[in-house]
Amino acid sequence: MKIIKYVFSICLAVLTIYSCSQDDDNSDFLDSAKTPTNISANVVVTQDNTGLVTITPLGEGAASFNIDFGDQSEVAIGIQPGSHIDHTYAEGTYNATITGVSLNGNETSISQQIVVAFQAPENLVVTIENDATISRQVNVTAIADFAISYEVSFGDPANTVLTANNEATTSFIYDAPGVYTITVTSMSAAIETATYTEDFEVTEILQPISGAPNPPSRDPSDVISFFSDAYATIPGVNYYPNWGQATTFNLIDLAGNEILQYGNLNYQGIDFAATPVDASQMEFLHIDVWTADDNDAKLSPISPGPNETAYDLDITPQQWTSFDIPISFFMDQNPLLDFSQIFQFKFDGDPAGGTIFVDNLYFWKEASGSTFDGGLIVNGDFEAGADPWIVGVDDNTPAPIVTLGGDTYYSVNVMSAGNPFDVNMSQKLEIIDGTNYTLTFDAWSDTNRSIIAGIGLSADPWSNDVGTVTIDTNRTTYSLTLSASGWGAIDARVLFDVGAETGLVNIDNVSLVIGTGNLVVNGDFEAGAAPWIVGVDDNTPAPVITEGGNSFYSVNVMTAGNPFDVNMSQKLEIVDGTTYTMTFDAWSDTDRSIIAGIGLSGDPWSNDVETVNINTTRTTYTITISAEGWGAIDARVLFDVGAETGMVNIDDVSLSIN
């Protein structure tokens, strides 16, 4: 295991300077509890010139805390999470050490230097600002000499008062814009305080400050675009035809990204009747919408007749809301709607009179012959049918799937609410103890309801890590960060428990990756050697062979020497202070070792690597590595294999942030 250093910036009593250390993990412990992380302390000093300090230790993975007060008094042992301890200091400077202790005895410590002075705050400087991205949020920062903390009275009807450490920022969201009297009181260990008052105007954000999320790259044949900077727009689109509506219109440029604004929205058309489009082969209608308040809208495609069907756009205020509406929704509501002759769209205000902003209005379909990357999941897009998806943990009961509009996905209608696990879909796969995962999936329903998704064991004790997500009629992509801590198995599973509420549940495009996903390009070598190289020479590709339709790195070391004499690398960004999980398959024609890890591609060649023993059996190896005190945009994943003779084969390389 590696020594990890944690650095924290905590604005506490008067002046604080930190140095951090961490005891080595002992890999001999049977207990799998992790080393504590994010150790910190909340420190409050009474304003009575006594030096009485209340210390509340904080941290993740700590079963208890020890505190050395730094004044040669007795060390406080076994403080439980959520508890605090009082200690009285004389005026002076002390190094207090807060240590988090895990269940298996692993420790992480921070050393905090505290200068205690019984002097009132001086030179108070207060900054009050409207937040640039959150409507009606005010951010306050107060800095004063000798100060420990400060209070802010925000002057709202509820008389909200918040406390923060000196130099830190505290924030508050008002219910309504207007002018409010904000009072800041700066405090030290002395009885006296310093005060600042300002009448401050709180403002609303009435339009987006940036464009909608960029749509994915798609083949032009898979998109019909009416308004988007990402795709070519069809000719002859009129965004403000004269339909006698009261709605106002503006075309707004946000740093080169254009959006549509419809104000006082009662109804509004988008017309392209001169060039009707054939969207009969498309699968979804996409739109991004933004509103400042609780204004919703309805969107209707229109074909000759006229025939139209409205879809309710349930917009989340103060952020872009993305909709991918299945074409089947409109057809189910109105079979007369002819998608081979769409010539208009219509917006209706819900209620009338609000303002919406629109971006990225287009039809789209999945690319022909495209392959979905499910990561560790097999058949995550269900296009191969149900297998290996099952109900519960019964290998003989396939999960129910449907095919609609050329798209296949899991679908079940829960008629009676019960236990969440009464209605379930699972896929068995290996989950590794102590490893973090990211689970993503698309889900939608015919109502608003919740489902449970995550990873877990497929047998007693049924250990798991799951999250609850609320789905609705919009097909939406959800992402969960999960961890297997203290459990794992070769036949664990990805699971969806959906039986707790009634209503339809549709799930598609399920992906599970280690960490946050693979940072390595062409980790399976199916695209050849690039960008894998020998050493750090960008002009020397790594040796790759193809056998039985599978491509992989392969080198036969004939003479033993330095490990780095025979090397494969891929340059990529490694971020200082970040922990990574690296996995790869490796095998040989003999028993031998190789070195794998991450490092710089130039002097001083800092790195974090591990030695792995490989043999004639193709095996998946997983190592945890960290960049501590180094990092670079052109760092690298590396394999040094020159220390021993014998064949080295490597495939399916993955590097993810842990």
Describe the structure.
The structure is a single chain. By secondary structure, the chain is mainly β. The protein has 5 domains: 15-116, Sandwich (Immunoglobulin-like); 122-202, Sandwich (Immunoglobulin-like), CATH 2.60.40; 220-364, Galactose-binding lectin (Jelly Rolls); 390-514, Jelly Rolls (Sandwich), CATH 2.60.120.260; 533-657, Galactose-binding domain-like (Jelly Rolls, Sandwich), CATH 2.60.120. Helix content is 1%, strand content 53%. It is built from 1 helix and 48 strands. The strands form 12 sheets. Strands 16, 17, 18, 20, 24 and 26 form a 6-stranded antiparallel beta sheet that branches. Strand 2 (37-45) and strand 3 (52-60) form a beta hairpin. The chain is globular. Residues 1-33 have low confidence and may be disordered.
Topology of helices and strands:
Layout: E1 15-22, E2 37-45, E3 52-60, E4 64-68, E5 76-79, E6 85-88, E7 92-101, E8 107-116, E9 122-130, E10 137-145, E11 149-153, E12 161-165, E13 169-173, E14 178-187, E15 193-202, E16 223-227, E17 248-254, E18 257-265, E19 267-271, E20 284-290, E21 296-303, E22 307-308, E23 311-313, E24 321-326, H1 327-333, E25 344-350, E26 354-364, E27 390-391, E28 394-398, E29 401-404, E30 407-414, E31 424-431, E32 435-444, E33 449-456, E34 464-471, E35 476-484, E36 489-497, E37 503-514, E38 533-534, E39 537-541, E40 544-547, E41 550-557, E42 567-574, E43 579-587, E44 592-599, E45 607-614, E46 619-626, E47 632-640, E48 646-657
What is the radius of gyration computed over CA atoms, rounded to a whole number of angstroms?
30 Å
Could you give a short account of the major beta sheet? 6 strands, antiparallel
Q: What is the oligomer described by this structure? A: single chain
CATH class of the largest domain: Mainly Beta
Q: For the residues shown, what is the average pLDDT? A: 87
Shape: globular
Low-confidence stretches: 1-33
CATH architecture classification name of the largest domain: Sandwich
Strand content: over 45%
Total tally of structural domains = 5
What's the number of extended β-strand segments? 48
Number of contiguous helices: 1
Query: How much helicity do the residues have?
Result: under 10%
CATH topology of the largest domain: Jelly Rolls
Query: In angstroms, what separates the terminal alpha carbons?
Result: 15 Å
**What class would the helix/strand composition place it in?**
mainly beta
So, the CATH homologous superfamily of the largest domain?
A: Galactose-binding lectin
